[in-house]
């Protein structure tokens, strides 16, 4: 790899690490920052010669997973460290014993749970999905194992474009049958919605593209409708001197597809294409 490209990659890596610290919901103590830095350096060393199918340095994946854990789930420093380390045992020569010696028994336990999940067969997922979800929930007495795994799956789905078509379909199906319902069960609704949309994108790409196109074409009309609908609400709330926030958003592509399928209707016949909160 050319020296110039290496330097660019190093700068990008430093930028992503700083972003990880910035987006952490909790106020990180000095000890927290030391732990995260230690895990970051350990992961960089473990994955230094590995690259993803896209050609990107592998280390960007665990950093992205750690960012999801910090920003979207709001977990603690131990969880962020484990997200950085989640593939180390599976993909390098480092062992669980090495992890425990370098960090602590709690981190070893979480990494062990994550490594076990990665090793499980997920064949025949349509009939075994519920059993697999139950198994995931009982594999560890620490729910952080499952939460980090969901963050891992989300980032894998976000970066699935570089995978072969058959692999995309398999991973997309697993996501719809197993991980999206699991996210819903754990109350991670935004992650659940994104997993569903991405799952549909790779299992039924033409349908996904068609609904996305039609949503985009009707975006202006939906915004105008929401503005008309919320105008009297805002007026009333202001008159009562209440603090409020009203937001409108389109329904997810997956939920629109589900309604079209269940009710046997077209896109134009789905009338509740948006939600207000």
Protein described:
The model has no long low-confidence stretch (mean pLDDT 87). It is globular and about 60 Å long. Helix 3 (60-73) crosses helix 9 (144-158) and helix 6 runs antiparallel to helix 7 (105-119). With 277 residues, it is mostly helical. 71% of the residues lie in helices and 2% in strands. The chain has a two-stranded antiparallel sheet with strand order 1-2. It has helices at 3-23, 30-46, 60-73, 77-85, 88-91, 96-102, 105-119, 125-138, 144-158, 165-185, 189-203, 205-217, 219-239, 253-263, and strands at 248-250, 274-276.
Tags for this entry?
mainly alpha; 277 residues; two-stranded antiparallel sheet; 2% strand; 2 strands; single chain
Topology (elements, then pairings):
Blueprint: H1 3-23, H2 30-46, H3 60-73, H4 77-85, H5 88-91, H6 96-102, H7 105-119, H8 125-138, H9 144-158, H10 165-185, H11 189-203, H12 205-217, H13 219-239, E1 248-250, H14 253-263, E2 274-276
Antiparallel strand pairs: 1-2
